[in-house]
TrEMBL record:
<feature type="domain" description="Phosphofructokinase">
    <location>
        <begin position="294"/>
        <end position="577"/>
    </location>
</feature>
<dbReference type="InterPro" id="IPR022953">
    <property type="entry name" value="ATP_PFK"/>
</dbReference>
<dbReference type="GO" id="GO:0006002">
    <property type="term" value="P:fructose 6-phosphate metabolic process"/>
</dbReference>
<keyword id="KW-0324">Glycolysis</keyword>
<keyword id="KW-0325">Glycoprotein</keyword>
<dbReference type="GO" id="GO:0003872">
    <property type="term" value="F:6-phosphofructokinase activity"/>
</dbReference>
<keyword id="KW-0808">Transferase</keyword>
<dbReference type="GO" id="GO:0005524">
    <property type="term" value="F:ATP binding"/>
</dbReference>
<dbReference type="GO" id="GO:0005945">
    <property type="term" value="C:6-phosphofructokinase complex"/>
</dbReference>
<dbReference type="GO" id="GO:0046872">
    <property type="term" value="F:metal ion binding"/>
</dbReference>
<dbReference type="Pfam" id="PF00365">
    <property type="entry name" value="PFK"/>
</dbReference>
<keyword id="KW-0479">Metal-binding</keyword>
<dbReference type="GO" id="GO:0042802">
    <property type="term" value="F:identical protein binding"/>
</dbReference>
<keyword id="KW-0547">Nucleotide-binding</keyword>
<keyword id="KW-0021">Allosteric enzyme</keyword>
<feature type="domain" description="Phosphofructokinase">
    <location>
        <begin position="1"/>
        <end position="215"/>
    </location>
</feature>
<comment type="function">
    <text>Catalyzes the phosphorylation of D-fructose 6-phosphate to fructose 1,6-bisphosphate by ATP, the first committing step of glycolysis. Negatively regulates the phagocyte oxidative burst in response to bacterial infection by controlling cellular NADPH biosynthesis and NADPH oxidase-derived reactive oxygen species. Upon macrophage activation, drives the metabolic switch toward glycolysis, thus preventing glucose turnover that produces NADPH via pentose phosphate pathway.</text>
</comment>
Length: 671
């Protein structure tokens, strides 16, 4: 009596499922003919509903931003690249790294972007004839400039213009013969499929799983089979056959050597990745020099991915012809004149570094305005790029509000939100919060494991985030927490009582452990200590309790692939936007920018990268608690409760919309 199938797999499995669906009627007739089922049964089950979820590490399914498993595969690749980087630097070696991707270069492309690789081979973009000479010349150049490390990344399906495979062995021999460099090949193979899933994958697949069941519940005989997918951070439903068709078109374009078209059919974000990689990998000689000076600084607490954003901003600034400065220690360093000009190679190797290489402080500009203005004038700064958390946004707002007093502050300003708390208005994701969620998740995984085999135990884990509950909510989903207490979702003693009773009932079954997350400032009186005492006394005889405060481990560590990539892209987008604004505000040999839209926060909002004026965002900010008034992730809490086995009302559930996948939709610029 099964008439609803949820199929998780690659395009093969999904195409098969759709064929099965079209043949369903005929198969039922056969069963009736052979007497295995009756006419009535055939009538009752005359229709099969199918929803697909794409599980594929290659991210090769058209129409979907991210397939399940891609992010985890990137984690494995980046771990290897980080390890190789240290050994290669000490030995002065060249490494040729082969990653998976027979037909799709996504993994190779993103890992090259996230590691700053020297050269890249992907099936969608075969190199021009004579690439051997170009590559060796480039490697020789970087080595002669003192770089101790060369990394070349190859997708296993890499080919040249004539469709002949380019193998890692061939590339290695080439480098050894022509340049005499000590060269090693590493083939990653099935390592990429293994390991524990990353936080992004756990949350993505939980969202997709829930959306798939909702789509099946709403399906009628007339709805086409659909794939549940992600666009930005929104769930969407796409007609299965449209996706399969475009995915086949890519392969056909590649077979017929229409490579430009293949890249476009992969979708706009693949194309953007490819263009940004080419921009940042190698310094082109700039023809033009602009009259503009650009200063970059970090403000607030360190967050992973800050250095990636600074690196790409510096390099794009230089390639645009601007003079690029960096300031140490935030606004304080800007006031004290700790400002220096930087070149292309000064930021080499910054991508994988955690924390902040420039140094960061929480000082706000209003304490040292005059000195900041003096240095802006002295260094001739026309654009200010601030990478940081809530203080970065608040600081730029103060500078904008001081424009009336100081004409020097009528310059172009942009904030790249970077904070583990994810509490900056104007963006759905801040730089660094993916790394922080992964760090918290890994700790909770270990904490849960410590209880296996002992008596029943409940862990109360406190996360960071100030008043913002993003970190504890998303970590809660990633580790299957029983509850996550946050400031934005107010709770009373009745809720606490219900949670304790729910856990006590659960612990009477064969479940051995519970996990309760608490955001550090979720309640003035219900502290971590209070929760511990409450759970301990109510659970006496059923389970015992332990407290864990995660603390600063959430701020550290190497950035995740998501944050390296996101930081790189935001750095590029921000500087390109600033260049455009500088051009508009330049008259009679000087820059004068005082409109609201000359000082913005860049961020991902739903499906697109957008710029929001800080003066507009001021209206939707709760400054006392350092929060945006509207938080998109609160709708994830419904899923958290459902997964912890609470009865929930689905009336609040926001279902994904049905969208189409065509060449036109794939070409839309989402940033």
């Amino acid at each position: 009596g099964i008439t609803n199938l949820c199929v998780i797999g690659g395009d093969g499995s999904l195409t098969g499922a759709d064929i099965f669906r079209t043949e369903w009627g005929g198969l039922l007739e056969e069963l009736v003919k052979s007497g295995k089922i009756t006419e009535d049964v055939a009538k009752k089950y005359c229709h099969l509903n199918i929803v697909g979820l794409v599980g594929s590490i290659d991210n090769d399914f058209c129409g979907t931003d991210m397939t399940i498993g891609t992010d985890s595969a990137l984690h494995r690749i980046m771990e290897v690249i980080d390890a190789i980087t240290t050994t290669a630097q000490s030995h002065q070696r060249t490494f040729v790294l082969e990653v998976m991707g027979r037909h799709c270069g996504y993994l190779a492309l993103v890992s090259a972007l996230a590691s700053g690789a020297d050269w890249l081979f992907i099936p969608e973009a075969p190199p021009e004839d004579g690439w051997e000479d170009f590559m060796c010349e480039r490697l020789g150049e970087t080595r002669s400039r003192g770089s101790r490390l060369n990394i070349i990344i190859i997708a296993e399906g890499a080919i040249d213009r004539h469709g002949k495979p380019i193998t890692s062995g061939y590339v290695k021999d080439l480098v050894v013969q022509r340049l005499g460099f000590d060269t090693r090949v590493t083939v990653l193979g099935h390592v990429q499929r293994g390991g524990t899933p990353s936080a992004f994958d756990r949350v993505l697949s939980s969202k997709m799983g829930m959306e798939a069941v909702m789509a099946l519940l709403e399906a009628t005989p007339d709805t086409p089979a659909c794939v549940v997918s992600l666009s930005g951070n929104q769930s969407v439903r796409l007609p299965l056959m449209e996706c399969v068709q475009v995915t086949k078109d890519v392969q056909k374009a590649m077979d017929e050597k229409r490579f430009e078209e293949a890249i476009q059919l992969r979708g706009r974000s693949f194309e953007n990745n490819w263009n940004i990689y080419k921009l940042l990998a190698h310094q082109k000689t700039t023809q033009r020099k602009t009259p503009f000076g650009l200063a970059i600084l970090n403000v607030g607490a360190p967050a992973a991915g800050m250095n990636a954003a600074v690196r790409s901003a510096v390099r794009i600034g230089i390639s645009q012809g601007h003079t690029v400065y960096v300031a140490n220690d935030g606004f304080e360093g800007l006031a004290k004149g700790q400002i220096r000009e930087v070149g292309w190679h000064d930021v080499a190797g910054w991508l994988g570094r955690g924390g902040s290489m420039l140094g960061t402080k929480r000082t706000l500009p209003k304490t040292c305005l005059e000195k900041i203005v003096e240095n802006v004038r002295k260094f001739n700064i026309h654009g200010l790029l601030v990478v940081g958390g809530f203080e970065a946004y608040e600081g730029v707002l103060q500078l904008v509000e001081a424009r009336g007093q100081y004409e020097e502050l009528c310059i172009v300003m942009c904030v790249i939100p970077a904070t583990i708390s994810n509490n900056v208005p104007g963006t759905d994701f801040s730089l660094g919060c993916d790394t922080a969620v992964n760090a918290a998740m890994e700790s909770c995984d270990r904490i849960k494991q410590s209880a296996s085999g002992t008596k029943r135990r409940v862990f109360i884990v406190e996360t960071m985030g100030g008043y913002c509950g993003y970190l504890s909510t998303v970590t809660g989903i990633a580790v299957g927490a029983d509850a996550a207490y946050v400031y934005e979702d107010p709770f009373t003693i009745h809720d606490l009582k219900a949670n304790v009773e729910h856990l006590t009932e659960k612990m009477k079954t064969d479940i051995q452990r519970g996990l309760v997350l608490r955001n550090e400032k979720c309640h003035e009186h219900y502290t971590t200590e209070f929760l511990y005492n409450l759970y301990s006394s109510e659970g006496r005889g059923v389970f015992d309790c332990r407290i864990n405060v995660l603390g600063h481990l959430q701020q550290g560590g190497a950035p995740t692939p998501f944050d390296r990539n996101y930081g790189t892209k935001l750095g590029v987008k921000a500087v390109l936007w600033m260049s455009e604004k500088l051009g508009q505000a330049y008259r009679k040999g000087r820059v004068f920018a005082n409109s609201a839209d000359s000082a913005c926060v860049i961020g991902l909002r739903k499906k697109v990268v957008a710029f929001s004026p800080v003066t507009e965002l001021k209206k939707v900010t709760d400054f006392e608690h350092r929060l945006p008034q509207d938080q998109w992730w609160l709708n994830l809490r419904l899923m958290l409760k459902m997964l912890a086995n609470y009865q929930i009302s689905l009336t609040e559930y926001v279902a994904g919309k049905m969208e189409h996948v065509t060449r036109r939709t794939l070409s839309i610029e989402k940033g």
